[in-house]
Amino acid sequence: xxxxxxxxxxxAAGAAMVGGPxxxxxxxxARQLSWHELEVYAFLHFTVNTFTDKEWGYGDEDPNxxxxxxxxxxxxxxxxxxxxxxxxxxxxxxxxGFCLWPTRTTRHSVRSSRWRDGKGDVVxxxxxxxxxxxxxxxxxxxxxxxxxxxxxxxxxxxMYREQLRELLTEYGPVYEIWHDGxxxxxxxxxxxxxxxxxxxxxxxxxxxTWEMAxxxxxGAVIFSDVGPDVRWVGNxxxxxxxxxxxxxxPVGEDGGAAAPGYSRYKEAATGHRNGKHWLPPECDVSIRPxxxxxxxxxxRVKSAxxxxxxxxxxxxxxASFLLNVPPDRRGLIHERDAASLEEFGARMKRxxxxxxxxxxxxxxxxxxxxxxxxxxxxSRSTYxxxxxxxxxxxxxxxxxxxxxxxxxxxxxxxxxxQRVEGFALDYWKDGWQPLAGGTSVGACRVVRLGEAxxxxxxxxxxxxxxxxxxxxxxxxxxxxx
Length: 481
Ligand code: FUL
Ligand code: CA
Description:
Layout: H1 4-13, H2 30-36, E1 40-44, H3 49-52, H4 73-82, E2 87-93, H5 122-132, E3 136-141, H6 154-170, E4 176-178, E5 185-187, E6 194-196, H7 206-216, E7 221-224, E8 230-232, E9 281-286, H8 304-314, E10 320-324, H9 335-352, E11 360-363, E12 384-385, E13 394-412, E14 422-428, E15 432-438, E16 445-464, E17 470-477
Parallel strand pairs: 1-2, 1-10, 2-3, 3-4, 4-7, 7-8, 8-9, 9-10
Antiparallel strand pairs: 5-6, 11-13, 12-17, 13-16, 13-17, 14-15, 14-16
Helix pairs in contact: 4-5, 4-9, 6-7, 8-9
The chain binds beta-L-fucopyranose (FUL) and calcium ion.
């Protein structure tokens, strides 16, 4: 079987392999599986707000305000790359309605700006720079549009779909489509300057928009408060709950049908065990207090240590980490943000570059072709599985020498569903000593140890599971300098 990043997907296509266990519960789609492999990616909040010092533009901004004189998409993407980001999602249009590409749907875009004589196209430049550097490209397109005179009526929904069509067909492959739940209220609306409210459940007819998006970009995951592919974690602080299930059945505020901006979103940080939908969470958070660049926040950029903490509470709990790094007025990533990114990226590389759990691996139960040594082969597409009916097996790794580590990473083979409900880790020192424990594992569980441990033998016990296990990785790492 093929191994490595590509192999994970290939294996997923034929999830139930000969002699392997039966899948359990809701399962991820192929597009969700490739998304799960990204784990860490960036958000770019960039528009007229960058120049007006606002978080939400009113919609009456002069397009000439947008003037990033030194805009350099390659420099931006390379700063993100140094931070270990594997994708980038750009605010192609935020609530103020200004489009960063020369759309044919409205004049309120870069085309009406003196910036680059009206010939600039931020979406093109960022998507191409991302592709050149091997990062995936995603689009944020705000459903709420405070500029459009049409907002609130049926013509606006047509325009929104048309904008999405342009983005999905003219800028190369897109891996994620981001629909914000923030919606309605006062705005410019073509000069009306009034308050417009819409029914979040019905106005956009989301199922029709998503059907269109599916046809145009079958490989892209669609994100919103309620999916359909990736769910909002329910906070903008960058963490999922300690117990976090990939499965989730969104419910509306009133207990009925859910829609973006209309859900019991607080349930999303944990999800629903045995939910009917594989709908994993994404944790969006900004490297600064605001989503857009503000000079005064240069002293409040999150440190690499803070980013590492958020990483372990998002990716480390089976979610993804969507880190916003807003370009400044020059059109570049500010030096302080770039420095944090670089240090964070280096720390991830240093930590996960080498799995220290090498050696003899012995399990209390294993099936042929799915032996316990698959846990330490560095591949997500191979896994250890216990025999049918053996739901709480254990495995011991004997490294043959004392090894020092402070991070443990576990992964389930998720093409077969999320199975494990409880686990415990021990190390040997004059008998088995408890190290750590937890509940959900899923795509990834990172356990940070309070103190580094030196041990020759480590034991993983699955303490609760409704079915036999399918785990693809057990890793021990050293994050210290
Ligand atoms: C929110 C928006 O209102 C913020 O401005 C930002 O774009 C954030 C990611 O989503 O709902
Ligand atoms: Ca493996």
